[in-house]
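Session log. Operator J.P. requested a structure for one protein chain; no other inputs attached. Running the standard single-chain path with token output.
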Amino acid sequence: MESLRDIRQNIKAIKSTQQIMQTMKMISNARIRKAQDAMTAARPFAKKMLEMVDDLKQDILSMPQPEEGENLAGRVFVNRTGDPSKIGLLLITGDKGLAGSFNAVILRAALQFLRDHKDKQITLFAVGKKGRDFFARLKMPNLHIAYESVGIFPKVSYAHAELLGEAVMKAFLKDKLGSVTLIYNDFKSLASQNLVEQKLLPFDFENIENEREESDFVFEPGIKEIFDILVPRLFKANMYRILLESQAANLAATMNAMDAASKNAGELVNALGVKLNKVRQAGITNEILDIVNGANALNG
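Structure written below.
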């Protein structure tokens, strides 16, 4: 049986851990409000950029295409010259643990993606220390880490999105990747996150709402010139929105995990408190019995 000293030390250690968890919960709670505001502000701009490029799509593709190769519009919309055996994977995880199943869900989806495409050359763009470290340990001959970015959460800036966007777009065009797939956790609410696996390149406009009115823009100096300027900005703006979504989802997961762990620690402290009282009462009872037995022996 444990001694009173051992139980008291366990209670003290659990209470100290509980205080750390409560502090981490408070920090995540304070940060997530700012992250939500940034995420909400980025959504309308990224959506409107997608709508503008979608408006240009048919006009751009109807223009004369080069006899050899493929121009930027062809690559980002149709990608006829991309090599189907070479694909890209953009993986966004957290930099730290203690976030429940946040990182595990993403890594499981990424592993399944690798199994489904084991016959292809995969170029990996890893954002987040957990994902980078996990795949760095994998010895897969068809997997190549082309870009990594760690330590950017929870202070994501547009500069991080610019670097990421440039790296992905450059590899897509230069290495003639057939497609680039994105896997990350999207922010759904403070209580839940949504795993997203979607095609990032070539552009997919199926998810854009069709409720908006048809527009008839006049572009100066010209459609192609505007398109060549707009596409890189669109891609980087979308990267920024995705990073903000992942950041908010990670903070929400951390807050929920620390809240649950703190409650579990409190329940464990209560259970140990009951056990402490039982051991103490048993000790007192044994001492009383020893005294009674001693008295009876003296009188006897």
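Operator note: The first helix runs from residue 4 to 61.
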